[in-house]
Every structure is written in structure tokens, then in C-alpha cells.
Amino acid sequence: MEVEGSSPMLLRSSLEKLKLNSEDCKPKTLQSNKRSALEKIGWGASVSSREKIKRRSLISLCLGVLGQHLEDIIDDLSEISVNFPPDSKMIMVAIARRRQLLNDEILISLADSSWDALDISGSDVSDFGLTRVAKMCKSLRAIDISSCSKITVIGVSELVQHCRSLEILRCGGCPRSEVTARRCLDILKPKLNDLEGDSWEELDSMNISDGAESLRWLVWSKIDNDSRESLTTECPRIIVNPNPSPFGFRGLDVPREALPDTTLDDPVVKDIDPKTWSSHRVQPRVIVPPVSNLPELLPVAERFRLAFAERDARLAPKRAKNARQHRRRAEREWVMTSTDAKSIALASQLGKSLYSRS
């Protein structure tokens, strides 16, 4: 009884300290005093948490659930997302990239012709996927292909050829991407059909062929001095790694997508729960050297063991996927055949109908 009576007494003593009759008590001070009184009795945490928590929309919650189980619906993703709006498809691409699941199949299944920005950095997208998307999304204005080890000069060439409105390109990041970026310099520079002009200002747009005609910003964090000097000399309109400034850069406002420390698709997933991708950490792959590369001096039993370990590591993802499919199939069969499951479903429908009538 002492514990139950202490809360009202504490609440009363706290409220007496609010000085409600004081003339110089401002509304803000009154509100803060009320919050401190509630915190003393254990209610303050819930009040402040309600103020800080932003309610997410139903669409964001549904997309978050789909993102958590993305690996289970990859095979049917093209059929599932056929009626998705463009922004929802972009959210799914961003979630797949953060979960390290983004590849050609997912990207092509979700690609939409209305996209003007795309972030595939650090993914398994190759030249094939990039080419398909470039042909479909011709209005792309900004793209991030940094740390994409499977993208080569061929993919970048197709991107520049089909996306004539491309203004921002983010590249480099890993050793293979650095090599690709250096080899793409000739593709990014415009080529001239008329070499008799005295200056760039006298050239007509018809005299400039190939090259990234609209490219203005290049984000390449580890660009070497030779590449930077080559771009500055031969194509000065391409600005490399612009720094944020309130006065702009060369009289131009630097877009957010061109800032070096910016993630291109952050605004896309601002309403998605970060647990969607943070709770799914990719397990490090067990790298087993191929049996063919092992020295012939190893015993036959050891070579057989290594071959079995290699096969087991290769088939582990497929076994996990099959187990999930069998579990979902068993749950569906139970719902369709079990009397208890049907009773629960009917009771749920009855409860919803009664709730809607009331």
C-alpha cells in the first residue's frame, strides 16, 4: 500500500512546485515543469518518445516488410512490382542495395522510365543490367556506379550514349572501379567534328559528337592527378569533386547529388525503418580454394574433404531458400486444411465486420 500511495503523493508535491498562480510564469516554463513532473513518476519517457517518433505511412511500412523478405520474392519480383509507382520501385532498389542483394535481375525488374536519379553503388550490377536500364531510363540526370566491380567501359559507354541528360556521375571507389574510371575519360570528353573553330564558344551543338554532352559534375574521390589535369585541360566544363559552398562553384549552385559526402538515395528511404536492412547482415562467404588449384601432393582424403566443403558452401544459399519455401507452403496448406485455422480466420473477419459497424 505504501508503494501505491507514494505515486499520488509524489504527483501532488510535484504539481505544487509548478507555481501555477505566478504571474511571471511563461507557457514554455509551465510546459517544461509539467514534463519534469511526469518524468519523476515514470511517464516522461513515454511522452518524449511519442513526440520524437514520427509515424510512418502505411505504404512505407508495407515496403519495409517487402524489403525484409526481398530474397524470398526475387523470382516473382517483376510480377509483384508491375503496378508499383516509380517511387516505390526506387525504394525497393535502395533497400536491395543496402542489403547487398542488388543485381541485374532485381534492377531490371524494378526499373522505371520516369527515374531521373539512380544509386547502384557497391552492388553486383554488371554492364548488362546497366545497359538495359540506360535504354529504359533515358531521362537519368544523376547516377552512382561507384564500387561496382562488374561495370566496365562498355557499360559506361552505353550509359553515356542513351542517357543524353546525364549531368552527375559518381564513380571509382574500389580498385576495379578506379581502373574503369580512368579508362572512361575518353568517353566522357566530347569529340569535335569541326576542328577549324578558334574557341569553344564558336562551336555549334551539331559540331560536338559522342561523349557525355550534358555531363557537368564528376564525383571521383580518389582521382589521380593525371586524370584531373586531363579533364581540366580538355573538358573544363566538367567539375570534379565540388565542395559545398554558400556561394556556389564557378557561379553555379552545386546540386546535392554532386556533393562527395552525400549518399544519392538517402532521401528515397527517409521514411523506411532502418531495421529493414540493418537486421539483415550478409554472412561472410567461406572461400574455399578450388580443388583443381591444390597441389597434387595432398592426400586423396583431404582433397575429397575440401571438394565437399566447396560444394556445401556453394549450395548453402539454395538450401536455405528451399527451406523457406517449404515452410511457407506448409503454412498455406495448414491454413487451407486445418479447422482451427479456418475458425481463426472467420473470427477475425467477424471481428472486423463488427468493428466497422460500431
Automatic annotation (TrEMBL):
Organism in which the protein naturally occurs: Kingdonia uniflora
Name listed for the protein in its UniProt record: RNI-like superfamily protein
SMART domains: LRR_CC
Top-level taxon of origin: Eukaryota
Cross-referenced SUPFAM superfamilies: RNI-like (SSF52047)
InterPro entries: Leu-rich_rpt_Cys-con_subtyp, LRR_dom_sf
